Amino acid sequence: MMTWIKLAARNLFRNRRRSLFTILAIGLGFAAVNALGGFTAYIFTSLEDGYIYGQANGHLTIFKEGFLHEGKLDPTRYLLDEADMAVINEVVHAHPEVLIATPQLHISGLLSNGQVSTVFIAAGRVPSEVRAINGYSRGMTGKIKLFTGKQLEDAIVFGAGLSKGLAEQLKLELDATAVAMAPTVSGQINALDAQVLQFFDAPVEALEDKLMLVTLKFAQSLYDTTSVDRLTVLLQDDAQTESMRALLAREFAARGLKLEIKTWNELSTFYTKVKQMFDVIFLFTFLIVFTIVVMSVINTVGMAIMERTREIGTLRALGFKRRGIIGLFASESMLLGLAGSLLGVALTLITWSGIKLLQPTWMPPQITRRVPLEIYLVPSYMLYSVLLLVSLSLIAASLPARKAARMEIVGALGHV
Amino acid sequence: MRIPAAARPAPLIELRRVYKYYQMGDERIAALRGISLRIQPGEFAAIWGPSGSGKSTLCNLVGLLDTPSSGTVHLEGQDVTTLADDRRSEVRNRAIGFVFQGFNLIPVLSALENVMLPLQIAGTSASLARLRALERLGEVGLAPHTAHRPAKLSGGQQQRVAIARALVADPVLVIADEPTANLDSENAANIIDLMRQLNEEHGTTFIFSTHDQRLLERVGRQVLMRDGEIADERTLEQPKTSQVATLRP
Ligand SMILES: Nc1ncnc2c1ncn2[C@@H]1O[C@H](COP(=O)(O)OP(=O)(O)OP(=O)(O)O)[C@@H](O)[C@H]1O
Ligand SMILES: [Mg+2]
């Protein structure tokens, strides 16, 4: 066995330049795929962190069954009242995996500056609990301050945050007072003063001129209710998301509660879209690399076979079987694949440490601040890349190698 | 006097009415036309004749590198005409050694590694293969050059390595198609002498082709080819003496 590997290795040195180019092609392809993969991993993690911790949406959100479909038409029917919440909280807090469970009430209505008014939608939340979720963030995302002005406080019930577009529309400055109007759950029109504490960027363009952030108490007062419409649950670990969803669903059902539990990636449409986009980009890059690798290996092995036809004839005369010839060229291209992958690992590490060192920043979509650009090292990607490139090289070589193995010996020997 | 069949030694090689055709476009070329030939174990046979007479074709068929269009080839009494490709490879590896006109050494392997090759194909351990290869290289007088790559060796030296390689697996038969065509006359004579000597020492059967009449000196069995047929055959009784054979094509 070693003899043939040695023979294959020496054969690669016969045309150094050609072998080098093939190894380079494989190595660069490897690095391209892995750098992109590492960047993608960083983006996904950042988006996930941003959604779960930065925007404090947690891993799971619990609604009354039907809320997501019909809640818009008849919000009051799908609210969770105090009795519901007591049971839900009891169930949820029985699990040590649950770090934080915080209620929300989303409201909509009109916001007025005294002269003009416009539609707003707002999340009513408990500011201290939102901050607690922010605090669990692993990366930068949870720590980036996403607003200008002051933070909301539990004690400042009528403090509110406005998306910049909304504030501009109503020409509201920080510390100004606006009036929020909405129908209560029983159908009367209600109005409350809100004090503008902060401006922020809406995470979605379409909401830029509508979004508002209020305290839960404010939302409940405006709707004149003690109910909420959802409970946000933060878990210890992303990996617990699905199992906890299933577990909680069973326990709620056992208590006779008709609830619906959504996971963070089901609710984060932005994450899903970006993921799909990156998956497509990744696929394209991968296909390009795939093509380059296959073409250059086929070319290298094909040329080698042409140049070494007489040698193939000789080996066959000495007793090499057809599969021996295939094996020889397969080993050569496997070595090419391995060498290319090793180079690829090295290039990926260089890229990674270069980025670590230089710490470039960039402005991702939907975020208005420069953040550090990172590439994660994903060992599983690298391992798969090695396996894939080596087997690709093998498969690519088998095409010309098969032809070589089928050559007539006499013809091959007579080849000059 | 006729020798009874049972008393005659079984031939190592037997060709029966062998034809070989090549298709060249619309034309069918008959390279061999009904060759019947027996080679006994231990013979040192020369196949000679003008260019295009079918010497190489004959060597290729005997060496199991090619198959006849019709007729049969027997090796050690076994019909090898229709053996499957893998079996033919095994027979070549085990029973037949090859020496080529162009030496055909593997350029990336040292002289020693080239000689080890047939044994390693057979699955012999590297250490044993090395031992036997060194022995063969010694026999052909190349002990000081075992580590050299072929490019570092002269033509005559390369052909000696090739002879060592052909003999390393102790084959019953060595086929050498024009082994001296790429050598000067002195080296050519040396190579034939070496083969002759090995033939005598080991009893290995040698078949070599040439169109150089001068090399037929001291060759026991001479087969003259012409137009794909055997034009003349001669067996000399005392080939070891400096008797000169003079067949005229
Ligand atoms: N692959 C082939 N295709 C077509 N014709 C061939 C082929 N090989 C040999 N021939 C023809 O068969 C005949 C015998 O060829 P062969 O090579 O056996 O002759 P040879 O005696 O070895 O000649 P030389 O001394 O030149 O080597 C020639 O006419 C040759 O042209
Ligand atoms: Mg010839």
Describe this structure in words.
The complex is a heterodimer of chains A (416) and B (249). Helices cover 54% and strands 18% of the residues of chain A. With 416 residues, chain A is α+β, with helices and mostly antiparallel strands. Chain A has two domains: 2-50 and 271-413, no CATH class; 58-267, no CATH class. In chain A, the strands form two sheets. In chain A, strands 2-3-8-5-7-6 form a six-stranded mixed beta barrel. In chain A, strand 11 (361-362) and strand 12 (371-372) form a beta hairpin. The two termini of chain A are 29 Å apart. Chain B is of the alpha/beta class. Chain B has a single domain (10-234), classed as Rossmann fold (3-Layer(aba) Sandwich), CATH 3.40.50. Chain B has a six-stranded mixed sheet, with helices on both faces. In chain B, strands 2-1-4-5 form a four-stranded antiparallel sheet, covered by helices on one side. In chain B, helix 3 (111-121) runs parallel beside helix 5 and helix 5 packs parallel to helix 6 (185-202). The radius of gyration of chain B is 18 Å and the shape is globular. The two termini of chain B are 28 Å apart. At the A-B interface, helix 1, helix 11 and helix 14 of A face helix 2 and helix 3 of B. The complex binds adenosine-5'-triphosphate and magnesium ion. Magnesium ion binds at residues 55-56, 177-178 of chain B. Adenosine-5'-triphosphate (ATP) binds at residues 22, 24, 29, 31, 51-57, 211 of chain B.
Strand content of chain B: 25-35%
Uncertain regions spanning at least 5 consecutive residues of chain B? 238-249
Low-confidence stretches of chain A: none
Q: Widest sheet of chain B: strand order?
A: 6-7-8-3-9-10
Helix content of chain B: 25-40%
Largest sheet properties of chain A:
6 strands, mixed, barrel
> Roughly what is the average pLDDT of chain A, rounded to an integer?
90
